[in-house]
Design brief:
Number of strands: 6
Structural class: alpha+beta
Helix content: 25-40%
Shape: globular
Strand content: 15-25%
Radius of gyration: 16 Å
Distance between the termini: 29 Å
Length: 197
Amino acid sequence: MPFQQSITLNEAQRGIFIALGANRPYRRHTPFENLQYALQLLSEREVSVLSCSRPWRTPAWPDPSQPPFLNAVAQIAWGGEDPTALMHILHEVEAVCGRVRSFRNAPRTLDLDLIDFKTRVRAPMTGNDLELPHPRANDRAFVLLPLREIAPHWRCPVSKEFIDTLISRLSWTDRKDCRPAGGVLHAATHRLKRGAT
């Protein structure tokens, strides 16, 4: 189960949600430990983790021969108002966890995506600009299923559709292949300990 109870409709509509994923170890640390460590690193950068889903296992895409991913979604609190500045923090945490950007959809030690920033809608001005909400979140079981655990009343800021409606549109295969993986990702405020590297 998530470490905190699900949030209300009003809380869901003004929240900040990030997706976490990993399918490669970093040094001697498993993908699960990388997700756990990412929560701690966020708290050290004044990003509070309010709640986090269970980890979910899903096949790698588009190449299912790669190691499967562990995915989760967390609601965070952050004092800033510029989502681009928050993305810089997320990229910094990825780098600390060994993320190397090589080719698109490559295996990775950590992937952090900004799914929703207080229901803001933002179109990119150039190819590298941040788009809000995340443009592919509504098509991804590994985002929507963990998100529903902690924000069952969440609505897409663009379409205004509730999360259950979005999940019902996913293919049966996508929903079936995304399964709880076991274990609990704790809040960063629990002061998670990183083992020696």
